[in-house]
Automatic annotation (TrEMBL):
PANTHER family: OLEOYL-ACYL CARRIER PROTEIN THIOESTERASE 1, CHLOROPLASTIC, PALMITOYL-ACYL CARRIER PROTEIN THIOESTERASE, CHLOROPLASTIC. Belongs to the acyl-ACP thioesterase family. This is Acyl-[acyl-carrier-protein] hydrolase. The keyword Lipid biosynthesis applies. Coiled coil: none annotated. One of its GO terms (cellular component) is chloroplast. InterPro entries: Acyl-ACP_TE_C, Acyl-ACP_thioesterase_NHD, FATA/B, HotDog_dom_sf. Its main location: plastid.
Length: 218
């Protein structure tokens, strides 16, 4: 899954979300998303993901049956991916290559889907649990790439690992783009998600000069 944030919505923005499905090889399909400002049409966020079919008994990838493909094929949109695929390999982190590790992460009941598996959105939050606080304070997330490798359930206990590339975390005042590599794994070692995030400096805070209300004398 890839997500690129061109601009974050601000207070008062009305956002339109478009999504569509396209065929993607024999085992899966692709879903894209486009978020735009309703008034201006400005593109805010683009995302693309590949979904696969899995055999419920063997837990292995399975080819989509032809009768199923025929049934859902009429809903497919013939279009190119909204994002060019990022073919850079996502490396596996370990205790020696990670700069930050957060342990003891476990799902709550509200994190589970109907199959008693952790919802994919929760993985993003867990990945960011090990991102250094200094980056979260000075930068904003500009892109995200995730590679889901294994499911986890309600009794799973996980670790989140992060390695920072190309920046001194203790001196981010003049840093531009920052890249982080991530791994979410079970505490016994099995990989759940590999990821990469890119961060850009937060825009200047204009709250001190915008919408100031003059004092009223009494």
């Amino acid at each position: 899954m890839q997500v690129v944030v061109d601009r974050y919505p601000t207070w008062g923005d009305v956002v339109q979300v478009d999504t569509w499905v396209s065929g993607s090889w024999k085992n899966g399909m692709r879903r894209d998303w486009l978020l735009r400002g309703c008034k201006t049409g400005e593109i805010l966020t683009r995302a693309s993901s590949v979904w696969v079919m899995m055999n419920k008994l063997t837990r292995r990838l399975s080819k989509i049956p032809e009768e199923v493909r025929e049934e859902i094929g009429s809903y497919f949109v013939d279009s190119a991916p909204i994002l060019e695929e990022d073919n850079r390999k996502l490396p596996k982190l370990d205790d020696n290559t990670a700069d930050y590790i957060r342990s003891g992460l476990s799902p709550r009941w509200s994190d589970l889907d109907v199959n008693q598996h952790v919802n994919n959105v929760k993985y993003i939050g867990w990945i960011l649990e090990s991102a250094p606080q200094a980056i979260l304070e000075s930068h904003e997330l500009s892109s995200l790439t995730l590679e889901y490798r294994r499911e986890c359930g309600r009794d799973s206990v996980l670790q989140s690992l992060t390695a920072v590339s190309g920046a001194d975390v203790d001196n981010l005042a003049h840093s531009g783009q920052v890249e982080c590599k991530h791994l979410l794994r079970l505490e016994e070692g099995a990989e759940i998600v590999r990821g990469r995030t890119e961060w850009r400096p937060k825009p200047a805070n204009n709250f001190d000069t915008v919408n100031q209300v003059p004092a009223v004398s009494t």
